[in-house]
């Protein structure tokens, strides 16, 4: 079953219309849902069957987000939570140095890799 925010996302994307070619990271395989995605030519990214490791990097990211941001604050509205998540993602990609990326931020590492 889809979470309310996933239905909200799908509804928003359905309004975009043809040519938008959205990309969904949702492990939901309901036929009706899949038909709606096919109708708007959306790409759905799901892990391979019995390959939970496919999703490991994203699970790691959400763990870090929870430890560094979510558990340290109280959120009184959905919008407040959503804005905090958006802000953290920007911080994570542009300011948070990472040892596994040679002390660079993800954006710096990506730019360095692309220019090599």
How would you sum up the global shape? Answer: globular
Helix content: 40-55%
Tell me the quaternary state.
single chain
Counting structural domains, the number is 2
Radius of gyration of CA atoms, rounded to a whole number: 17 Å
Which strands sit side by side, in order, in the main sheet? 1-2
Task: Tell me what portion of residues adopts beta-strand conformation.
Answer: under 5%
Number-wise, the strands total 2
Low confidence ranges: none
What structural class should be given to the helix and strand makeup? mainly alpha
The span between the termini is 44 Å
Order of helices and strands: HEHEHHH
Give average pLDDT, whole number: 81
Walkthrough of the structure:
This protein has 116 residues and is mainly α. It contains 5 helices and 2 strands. Strands 1-2 form a two-stranded parallel sheet. Strand 1, helix 2 (31-39) and strand 2 (43-44) form a beta-alpha-beta unit.
